[in-house]
Every structure is written in C-alpha cells, then in structure tokens.
Amino acid sequence: MEAEGVTHRAHVITVSDGVSAGTREDISGPALRTLLINADFEVSGPEVVPDKHERISDAIVAAVVGGADFVVTTGGTGLGPRDVTPQATSLLIDYEVPGLGELMRLAGAASTPMASLSRGVAGVRGHSLILNVPGSMKGATESLEAVLPILGHAIQLLHGHTKHS
Fold first, then answer.
1. Could you tell me the residue range of the domain that residue 75 belongs to?
2. 21, 33, 121, 141: which has the fewest Cβ within 10 Å?
3. Single pTM value for the model
4. What is the DSSP string of 100-138?
5. CATH of residue 125
C-alpha cells in the first residue's frame, strides 16, 4: 500500500470491556494487525479501550493526531447497550463513507445473516479513514478483508493523490 514511496500508517483499536479489564483475550485486534502488516501497512496497536464513549473518542482522535492514515476499531458495533463505537465515531468524523460499511456487511452476510446487525461506521476525519468492524475475529477479519483491496486508493485520494497507477 505505497503511494510515492510512503508506507501507509494504520492504528488498531480494540473496544472491549472484557479485554480492557483483563478477563478476556484480545483476538480480533492482533488478527487485524496481521492483515494490515501483510498488506504493507505500518501498524501500531492494538490499543485496548473499554466500551466507553469518551475512551473510544479519545483513542481515535489520538491515532489521527498521531498520523495514522487508517484507524480501525474492532468491537462495540452490535445492538447491545454497551455497543457505542459507531456513535462515538459518528461524532468525530467530518463525513461518512457509507459504501465501505455496505461492502463489509455484504461480505459478512455471505457467512451469516447476523452481519446485517453490525452498525459499523466508515468515515473521514481530516486525512484519515476511520472504520468500525465487529468484535468477533471472524467478523473483524472478513470486514477488513472486504475493504482491504481499496484502502490504499482511498488513502491516496484523502492525501490528494488522484493519479491512477
């Protein structure tokens, strides 16, 4: 995923009360990290935060300010009362990129109809693309794999590179 010799920078955020409290192991965050590294991203994280609006917001903003071209959160996208990742993300983004969320849900629906219940948001803050994926390892990796082929191009567009290679 290189544009003019620069490697794209990604940051992974795992949103989970259980992982944050040390009662559950983070499986999806490391899986996303591996996928991104294999796609030639420079990756930081997974950073772990609890299912709290302010903590999610702070982590996303810090990643963007820190120079991440792409921020992916895993967890907190379902219908449960503690699932607030999409709400936190929606308040931070300058605009939404609905096609990415649609593509992720379509890919997930090939495995399970439950993918339709994911409320993951995709959007832009400044020059960074932010994406919410489900917390399950399968849901997280299927979602990222669905959009991975177009992430490099999307990031290039966000940085003003409009030429096609």
1. 2-158
2. 21
3. 0.94
4. HHHHHHHHHHTT-GGGGG----EEEETTEEEEEE-SSHH
5. 3.40.980.10
